[in-house]
Amino acid sequence: MHHSKERVEAVHQLLRKFKDLPNRQLARLAYKQHRHLFSSLNAAQCAVRHARGNRGNKSRQQSSQRQDILRPNGKADAGYVWDFPRSSAPSYGPFTLEEGCGLVLSDLHIPFHDRDSILACIEYARKRNPDFILLNGDICDFFSISRFDKNPAESSLKKEINLTRQFLGWLRQQFPAARIIYKLGNHDEWFDKYLFRKAPELYGVDGMSLAHFTTAQIDSISEVPGIEWVDDQKCITYGKLKIWHGHEIGKGSIAPPVNPARGLFLRTLECGIMGHLHKDSAHNETSAGGKLISCWSTGCLCGLWPRYARVNKWTHSAIWLELKASQFSVIPLRILNGRIL
Length: 341
Hints:
Blueprint: H1 5-17, H2 23-33, H3 41-51, H4 56-63, E1 95-96, E2 100-105, H5 115-126, E3 132-136, H6 157-174, E4 179-183, H7 190-198, H8 210-215, E5 227-230, E6 236-238, E7 241-243, H9 260-268, E8 272-274, E9 281-286, E10 292-297, E11 316-324, E12 327-336, E13 339-340
Parallel strand pairs: 1-6, 2-3, 3-4, 4-5, 7-8, 8-10
Antiparallel strand pairs: 2-11, 6-7, 9-10, 11-12, 12-13
Helix pairs in contact: 1-3, 2-3
């Protein structure tokens, strides 16, 4: 096919200006802008393909000196380059707890907490000068905004937030030098989920967070300093020990009738601690290679007979942890009638 000089120059200008467009789109553009030069859309596409060297060896030889418009052959729309899609997957990594000793408290469910059991744990820790206090999930119950049926007279969102704030402030007074780490459990996550459902426009706005409402200075109420937050269902690593609230593990291996510690072992195959199911348990197994894997679950520190579960197997307990030279030790603190056994 004979190409006039004017037609070639028009095609080359478009190729330089829109060099990432596929052949077909460029042909449509050439035909629209220079209809007097092409007898049909197909003729415009042939001219584009010829200029890019996509019409056999002869066209590639003629285009070899014009690297700015030369494009490789392809099965469809020769020369179009597909970009690898960007990922929306968020980064996810553990929260690391360094060497030291500390207390692990799970499932307080404020305002339904058990005062005597918590005070017994705090007194135990005070005598041992902890480096950290780990609040391992479900510290606030958020009964008032849960998806379950509820008696509105039993609690309110304002009461739950204020009492949780009061507890954090009191805890900071008891241990002014210790790290206080608040890991979100499934009940704590209800705060954000409530915003997701009821007021998505407010999510992410400055001040609209559980951390702000429970620790920031509000009016005449003092700030609660130095609370570290672990969200996004992140695991906490403590040497070779993994610490979970428990809801991150899933229901497949840790149904309520099963020993929770054994369920944790089956699910992770690593040494670990979890709360969530309000039952105190331990499980140990040795691998074929002689590796000892130990798992523990902690009981709760809330009332044992809630309206929705009058009959249950719940227990009161906490855990004392120590880590030195990569060796960890776990001391379960079993509680009966407000006293550590």
